[in-house]
């Protein structure tokens, strides 16, 4: 059976790198992606060896379309799109601290960037009458779990969940599934930069009693990417170590 092609945006580190690594291990044809040809992206390429690489800014619609369409023209359909690239810029103690430029960057990346990537692959998926899109949302996209400190970021991730459900409704009849995953607190570079007191508060806020690992999110992503989830579409899977439940 021909191995399926999977594109993971923002795959130089963290969850994206973990997904790329697992997909490669499971025999998928992997395309990694970065906004720039960073040292981290080159390191991922070196570690996985037999992968392809695309470099473009997802906030730039024309650049995204050009890079992805050119790859499809030369190589064939991208079967699975993982919209992982995202940013969090505004960290607030009150609403007066919202910086428009940071909010615009969050929206441009988390919402428009996701849309741009979907726009670039959807024609080939429709032609193939098959496709799988997985969007990485966030625990913050759930109203019960959003906080003032990440107000603008949370609204973009709520938008990703809504986008997922809208697209799932429309494209189901064309053989295209669309789902999302809302990770809780995962041990990434950003989380590792937190103060020890903040890290401990989050850890004890989960039922499992620890921060999640990128590899644990990757397992859920690859479940959705596989035929094991063939009866699922329009779903958002919360993977938070029981944070939401304990918070109740």
UniProtKB/TrEMBL annotation:
<dbReference type="InterPro" id="IPR036291">
    <property type="entry name" value="NAD(P)-bd_dom_sf"/>
</dbReference>
<dbReference type="GO" id="GO:0016616">
    <property type="term" value="F:oxidoreductase activity, acting on the CH-OH group of donors, NAD or NADP as acceptor"/>
</dbReference>
<dbReference type="Pfam" id="PF13561">
    <property type="entry name" value="adh_short_C2"/>
</dbReference>
<dbReference type="InterPro" id="IPR020904">
    <property type="entry name" value="Sc_DH/Rdtase_CS"/>
</dbReference>
<dbReference type="InterPro" id="IPR002347">
    <property type="entry name" value="SDR_fam"/>
</dbReference>
<keyword id="KW-0560">Oxidoreductase</keyword>
<protein>
    <submittedName>
        <fullName>SDR family oxidoreductase</fullName>
    </submittedName>
</protein>
<comment type="similarity">
    <text>Belongs to the short-chain dehydrogenases/reductases (SDR) family.</text>
</comment>
């Amino acid at each position: 059976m021909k191995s399926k092609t999977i594109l993971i945006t923002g795959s130089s580190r963290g969850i994206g790198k973990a997904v790329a690594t697992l997909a490669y291990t499971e025999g998928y044809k992997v395309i990694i992606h970065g906004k720039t040809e960073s040292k981290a992206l080159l390191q991922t390429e070196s570690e996985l060896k037999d992968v392809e690489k695309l470099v473009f800014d997802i906030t730039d619609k024309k650049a995204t379309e050009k890079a992805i369409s050119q790859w499809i023209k030369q190589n064939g359909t991208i079967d699975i799109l993982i919209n992982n690239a995202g940013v969090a810029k505004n960290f607030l103690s009150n609403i007066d601290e919202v910086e428009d430029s940071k909010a615009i960057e969050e929206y441009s990346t988390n919402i428009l960037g996701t849309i741009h990537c979907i726009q670039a692959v959807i024609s080939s998926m429709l032609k193939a009458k098959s496709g799988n899109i997985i969007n990485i949302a966030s625990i913050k996209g759930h109203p019960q779990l959003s906080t003032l400190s990440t107000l603008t970021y949370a609204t973009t991730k709520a938008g990703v969940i809504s986008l997922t459900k809208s697209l799932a409704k429309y494209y189901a009849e064309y053989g295209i599934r669309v789902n999302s995953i809302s990770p809780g607190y995962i041990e990434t570079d950003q989380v590792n930069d937190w103060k020890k007191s903040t890290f401990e508060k989050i850890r004890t806020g989960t039922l499992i009693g620890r921060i999640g690992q990128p590899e644990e999110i990757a397992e859920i992503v690859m479940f959705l990417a596989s035929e094991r989830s063939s009866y699922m579409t329009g779903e958002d899977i919360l993977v938070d170590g029981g944070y939401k439940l304990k918070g109740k």
